[in-house]
Automatic annotation (TrEMBL):
Pfam families: ADH_zinc_N_2. The lineage of its organism: Bacteria, Pseudomonadati, Pseudomonadota, Gammaproteobacteria, Oceanospirillales. This is Zinc-binding alcohol dehydrogenase family protein.
Amino acid sequence: MDLSALQGKSAGFIWELMFTRSMFGTQDIARQQDILTQLAALVDAGRIRTTLGATLEGFSVETLKEAHRRSESGKTIGKIAIKY
């Protein structure tokens, strides 16, 4: 995907990899299970929750404009994600 159109803009493209240990077969791969177990317990207990406010579908100019419009409105609470 060519992201050069985002250069010079206040935009970011962020990859979040949850399973890096398993992807790279690190020596502490079992730690991933511990982390996910702890995370599940915190979510189940209501101690943590997502900051996601909205998810827009499709990576397009129109979707980016809509995300930007919502962000500029001053009424958005939480993060806006674009599902590619």
